[in-house]
Amino acid sequence: AVVSTQSTGSRVLRTLEASNAQYTIQSEDLEGMMIQQAEEENLKLGKFDRTGDSDESFHDDYHSYEEMINRLEALAATYSDKAKVFTLEGKTYQNREIKAIRMTNNINDEEATNSKRIIWLDGGIHSREWIAPATMMYFVDVILGDEEKDRSETIGAILDKYQIVIAPVINPDGYIFSCDGDVGRVQDDDCNRMWRKTRQPAGCLHNEKMWYGGCLFKLCYGVDPNRNWDVSWDTKQGVSDNPCSDAYPGEKAWDQPCVEVVKNHLEQIKEKLAMYVTYHSYGTLLLMPWAYSKDPPPHHDHHVTVGKNVVAAIKEVHGVEYTPVQISTGLYPCSGSSLDWVYDKLKVVDSYGFELRPNFESKYHFLLPKEQIKETGEENTAGLLAFIHNIYEPDDDNEEDKEDEGNDTEDDKDNGGDGENSDENSDGNADEDVEQNINED
After folding, report:
1. Positions of E strands within 257-405
2. Alpha carbons within 13 A on the beta-carbon side of 379
3. Which of the residues 126, 180, 287, 329 could staple to 353 if both were Cys, CB 3.0 to 4.6 A apart?
4. What is the value of pTM for the model shown?
């Protein structure tokens, strides 16, 4: 999606037409739509209760970063036997902490819980995609039992086996600058509703500098945090060298503190990491590796099977159709994405992303009405449970090996060979082959 001002819109159209690119104008006045939403909501900062303490559900509105963290801490205090809020080590460029909540049964029994594998979910890496943090908050309420109580038995069994960690907003600097969940604001000195990136100074517009070192035009802020991960970063696919671009990947991988904070934590838990899912909007897509290569990854068949099961579960709830795609072929190629890095570098087979509501035909884009927050959470809860039901188990490779070894043994016997020698010559461990394949990609 391309968002431009009225002054640059005609130039963008000329560029698209000159390159024979196919395009669709989805909204000729996005700012007007934002203003209309604000007027309809009649909201002003500090004038309404978004804490969730009123009769109105917490999930009937968008919320500030502070409100979300306060909500997590309140829930952890209420459900102290199965939830703890913690702070990831390190801080963002603007000196903010990134908070997450860890949920599992008997959480205070550290010896028992530390042996459980971890499911990691995050949102808010792109600032303006508010429905992603809102969905993370809905997941927390479902897992802890405040929403969808009929799923308590299923959730209980999951929490017996896994730890679920949810980080609702991993780019808090950007989220707060995108008007911090307040639909009543559009753009002022302290916020821009369409902000996507981090808030660290990135360089000069078009990299043009004055002779004394200052910027010729203006100083640009922010890096796309989902192009800043060190996976095929040097190939510079789906990015821009212009620091003012929404797709600017930074001067080097890991140069954004918020990205490095999350990366460091994921590396610390990599031996127990069973699944990673990062949530975005919009487009109603389930995203699968690779983003940087059009080749299918080693576990492509597994991803496709999981994708079909997940989108089927989502559709059963409200009839909304999501489409599972390999990012590079079904959306666009891009380097430096978090899900590619987790799959490639941490060797986590179940590494995915989501583009939540609305779909590409919708006029709302990143401005999904608050009335759709809860439905989005409900359908994606079904999707999450389907994900967990289909988690790849390390033994899956071993079972395939045993079948292959058995077949080889029978063939050897038929040919007068020695089954024991055949086993010695077999591959033996598919995990080693998978790791080699991933490294080669």
Report:
1. 273-281, 285-288, 323-326, 350-356
2. 22
3. 287
4. 0.82
State the Cα–Cα distance between residues 100 and 279, nearest whole angstrom: 15
Q: Give pLDDT tens digits for 258-290.
A: 999 999 999 999 999 999 999 999 999 999 999
Residue with tokens 């599992």, as numbered in its chain: 104
Please compute, for residue 45, the number of CA atoms within 13 A of its CA located in the half-sphere on the CB side. Answer: 12
Mean pLDDT, rounded, of the chain:
85
Partners of 285 in beta bridges: 323, 355
Tokens (6 digits) for 370: 């608050």
- Separation of CA 406 from chain center: 41
E strands along 225-349, which residues?
Answer: 273-281, 285-288, 323-326
**Is the preceding peptide bond at 290 cis, omega within 30 degrees of 0?**
yes
Question: Which run of H or E residues covers position 254?
Answer: none
Phi, psi of 344 (to 5 degrees): -80, -50
The pLDDT confidence band at residue 191, using thresholds 50, 70 and 90, is very high
- Residue whose C-alpha is closest to residue 279's, from 67, 125, 103: 125
